[in-house]
Amino acid sequence: MTVPVIELCDVSRGYDDGPPALDDVSLTVRAGEAVSVLGPSGSGKSTLLNLVAGLDRPDTGTVTVDGVRVDGLGEAASARYRRAKIGMIFQFFNLLDDLTVVDNVVLPAQLAGMARGEAARRAAELLDVLGIDRHANAYPGRLSGGERQRVAVARALMNRPPLLLADEPTGALDTASGEDVGQLLADLNADGQTIVVVTHDLALARSCTTRTIRLVDGRITADADAIAAESAR
Ligand code: ADP
Ligand code: MG
User: Fold this and answer.
1) Which protein residue's CA is at the shortest distance from atom 5 of ligand 1?
2) What are the tens digits of pLDDT across the range 113-153?
3) Mean pLDDT, rounded, for 76-91
C-alpha cells in the first residue's frame, strides 16, 4: 500500500448554532489517488477542503497531510505548510489581477524562497505545458475563464505540491473549458499527482477521478472506486 497523503481521524467542525458542517469524518487518501467529493450545497465539501488545506481547524479529530499534523498549526506554520504541501484551485481562479500571468505563477515560489532563475524556468515550463505560454505577459483580465483556470493550475503546481486541491474548478466555466480542465487534471493524475476535487459536476468527477466520496449533512454516505453506480441511477 502506498503512503497516505491525507488522513482525517474523527474530524468534526461546526459553526455557531447550526448543525455540524462536518460530523465525525474519517478518511484516508493515498499517494496517486484522484478523489472527487460530491454532495449538495451545504454538505460540508468546502469545510473538508479547508481543513485539509489548514485554512480552518477542526473542533475535534486530527488532520494529517503528507506526514504533517495540520490541525494544530498556528498561522505562520500553516502558511508555510500550504506553500510546501498544497496547490489549490478555486471556482473563481483567485488570480491577482494587477500581476501578469507569469508573475502570478511565480509568486508561490518567491514566497517559498526559490531562486529567481529557477522559478522563472519552472514557470516558463508550466506555462508551456499548459498551453498558455503566449499569455505569459498578459494580465489575467484579458484571458478567458478557461485560460485563467490554466494559469491557476500552473500557479498551484509551481512548488511541486504533493497534494492538489480543487474547489468547484469548473463552476465558472463553459462546458468546453470545463472539459479541458477535467482532461488537464486527469493528465496530472496520470503523471502521479494526488488530487482531491470538490464538485457538483458529475462529468468532471467522471473525467478526472477514480474514487468518489459523497457527503450529506457533513457525513460520508458513500465512498466508491468509481461513479459507475452513480451514473446508472
Ligand atoms: P459546501 O461546500 O458543501 O456547499 P460548506 O462546507 O461550505 O458546504 O458548508 C457546510 C455548512 O457549514 C453549511 O451549513 C454552511 O452554512 C456552514 N458554514 C460553512 N462555513 C461557514 C462559516 N464560515 N460560518 C458559518 N457557517 C458556515
Ligand atoms: Mg463549497
Assistant:
1) 44
2) 999 999 999 999 999 999 999 999 999 999 999 999 999 99
3) 96
Around ligand 1, the residues with Cβ closer than 6 Å are: 15, 18, 21, 39, 41-47
51 located within any domain: yes
Q: Which ligand is located closest to the Cα atom of residue 215?
A: 1
CATH of the domain at 8: 3.40.50.300
Set of cell numbers at residue 206: 467522471
Note if the pTM is more than 0.85: yes
Query: Using CA positions, which residue lies closest to atom 13 of ligand 1?
Result: 42
Which residue lies with its CA nearest to atom 12 of ligand 1? 21
**Total number of domains in the chain:** 1
- Ligand 2 (ion): residues with CB under 5 Å are 45-46
Instruction: Answer for the pair 138, 88: CB distance below 8 angstroms, yes or no.
Output: no
pLDDT band at 1 (very low <50, low <70, confident <90, very high): low
CA gap 29, 210 in Å, rounded: 12
User: Domain for residue 189, yes or no?
Assistant: yes
Q: Report the phi/psi class of residue 168: left, alpha or beta, with left for phi > 0 and alpha for psi in -120 to 50.
A: left
Residue 174, domain extent: 4-94+161-232
Q: Which atom of ligand 1 is nearest the CA belonging to 218?
A: 10
Residue among 11, 13, 15 to mutate when testing ligand 1 (max atoms within 8 A of CB): 15
Three-class DSSP category at 49: helix
Separation between Cα atoms, residue 48 and residue 53, nearest integer Å: 9
Cell numbers representing residue 233 in the block: 441511477
Cα end-to-end distance, the chain, whole Å? 32
